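Margin note: ligand = NDP.
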Amino acid sequence: NRKLVLAERPKGEPTLDTLRLEEEAIPSVGDNQMLLRTEYLSLDPYMRGRMSDAPSYAAPVEVGDVMVGGTVAKVVTSKLDGFAVGDWVLSQNGWQDYALSDGDGVTNLGASPEHPSWALGILGMPGFTAWAGLTQIGEPKPGETIVVAAATGPVGATVGQIGKLLGCRVVGIAGGPEKCAYAVDELGFDACIDHKAEDFADQLTKANPDGIDVYFENVGGKVLDAVIQLLNPHARVPVCGLVSQYNATELPSGPDRMNWLMGQILRNKIKVQGFIIFDSFGHLYPDFAKQMGTWVEGGKIKYREEVIDGLENAPEAFFGLLNGENFGKRVIRVGQN
Ligand code: NDP
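Resulting structure:
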């Protein structure tokens, strides 16, 4: 069993010293247990937070422990009712080939799901995050303008496409012309602005002539700076993530704009609300699953996935995810399927 353990807590950007590949014997199965073989490992921005022991909503991974992560796996041996050898499951094996499970928190995907890895993306946690954050906090109304960054990633792409289905104008923000073209041409966004462009803030202003009613916050940083001035009275801001800051070691330099920000919120009566998807909205998961299943099956929502082979490639693939090297949902194919 190969496993990637946290070797040391990163300061700033994680490096190849952050994780260490170890090998051990494949564990044997006890009563009321099953052995799972990881087929796909999800890479998600929240994993950077688990590498750190700064206060957070979830406990950090301890140094020496296997990195946590959502996985799609196959049942290899089962002494558990409801799980047969060969079943595909959605589980939390972490960054390793095999894991024992007592079935707790494991979803059986059946013997032959059509797109098993999609349970880590559009049909799972990131899709649910987009749907719940937008509908429950963003509360978009037809004709309103929604802005979302990381627009081609699993959360942002889904936010934008749901926005279009709900009759809104959607402006994406993404890194580079290729991603922006994809957001408009393939995903149906009304516009998409490249945050790497020098005149990014001006372009964003021009793309939002009627201001912004819903800003789905994925990234923070200079995107947030540019957006704040465009928010309309009664705008809603679901605060989902701040990925531009996950490797930061200190607060940004420059004048303190905290009170200016609070003033904007006050004057424009803006609602800003953070959420942690399963904590905040877990009870809505069945509603999401039904709705998203219908949309995806009917071709109303598109999904882009980037599959990288080999558990040993997970660390670099993860570092790249934080810097926007990914184009779509990044998963590692661990097994041979
Ligand atoms: P993505 O696959 O979209 O990956 C992150 C993307 O962020 C990169 O591809 C990059 O896209 C963009 N990015 C990175 N650095 C910057 C920067 N400095 N400025 C602007 N954009 C940047 O991730 P997900 O779709 O999985 O997640 C999106 C967000 O949702 C994250 O913040 C994540 O933490 C959050 N999240 C929150 C949850 C919750 O419960 N609150 C649950 C799940 C996700 P590009 O190249 O286009 O800039």
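The chain has two domains: 2-120+304-333, 125-279.
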